[in-house]
Amino acid sequence: MTALFALATSLLWGLADFGGGLLTRRIPALTVVVVSQSIAVVVLGTVVIATGAWTEWGPQLWFAVAAGLAGPVAMLAFYKALALGPMGVVSPLGSLGVAVPVGVGLMLGERPGLAQFAGIAVAFAGIVLAGGPELRGAPVQRRAVLLTLLAAFGFGGVMALIAEASSGLTGLFLALFVQRVTNVAAGGAALYASVRRGGGALPEGSGTAGGGMGVVRAALPALAFVGLADVAANGTYSVAAQHGPVTVAAVLASVYPVVTALAARLVLKERLRGVQAAGAGLALVGTVLLAT
C-alpha cells in the first residue's frame, strides 16, 4: 500500500508541476499559486463540512499550519532560482528535499533493509539525473544555489509536516484544508506585497476579452487541476507515510521529476536528454527495489 500511494503521489505532483509550469508562462507565478489553492480551499471546505471532519480539530493541526507556511516560501524560492538559472542545475537540486522526510524516518527508528537502502540510493540518483543536470556551461550564481536549497528543504519539510498532521481519513481532510487556507493567506500576502512594489498580479491580456482577468478566467479549469492535484498528492503521501516506512514513502513520492519530464515529452514534444533518460531508468530500478 505504501508503494502504491507514494507512486500515486509522484504522478499527481509531476502532473501538477507540469501544469503549473505551463500556466506560469502566461500568468504570474504567485497568481497561479493563490488562485489554484483558493479553488482547492473551496473544494476541501465542502468535503470537511460534508464528512464532519471539523470535529477532529486538535493541536496536531499546527503541523498543517507549518506546512502551509513552508509551501509558498519554498515555491517562491524555487521560481526565483529557476529565473536565475540555469534550470538544468536548479531543477535537480530541488530534489534534495527528500533528505528531510528520509532523515525524520531514520530518526524515528526506521531501518530499511539492504535492498531498500540500495533502492533509495538508486532512485535518488535517478531523481537528480531526471532533471537533466548541466555538468558544463555557465557558472551558477551562489544566490540561485541558496534559493534552490531553501526550496528543496522547504518542500521536504512540507512532506514531513503533513504526514504528522493527521491520523485518520477525515482528519486528513481537515489537515489539508488548514494547510491550503494557510497557503492562500501566505501566498495572498506575498502577492499583495508584490503588487505594492509594482509587480503585476494579472497577465498581459491585450487582444483577449476581459484583458488579464479574461486570461485567468479562461485558465480556471487548468488552475483547478493544478490545485486539486497538489492537494491529492499531499493526501496520498500522508496515507503512504502512515501505512509504511517514511523512508520508502518519501523517496517513491519524490520520483515526480520523471513524471514532469515525460509529460513534457508527450505533450510538448520536448526531447529527453540522454542524462534524463538514464535518470528515468534509474528511478524505475530504484522504485522496484523499494517496492520489494
UniProtKB/TrEMBL annotation:
The chain crosses the membrane at residues 6-23, 30-55, 61-82, 89-108, 114-132, 144-163, 169-193, 214-233, 245-268. Residues 3-130, 144-291 form the EamA domain. Coiled coil: none annotated. GO terms for cellular component: membrane. Keywords: Membrane, Transmembrane, Transmembrane helix. Belongs to the EamA transporter family. This is EamA domain-containing protein.
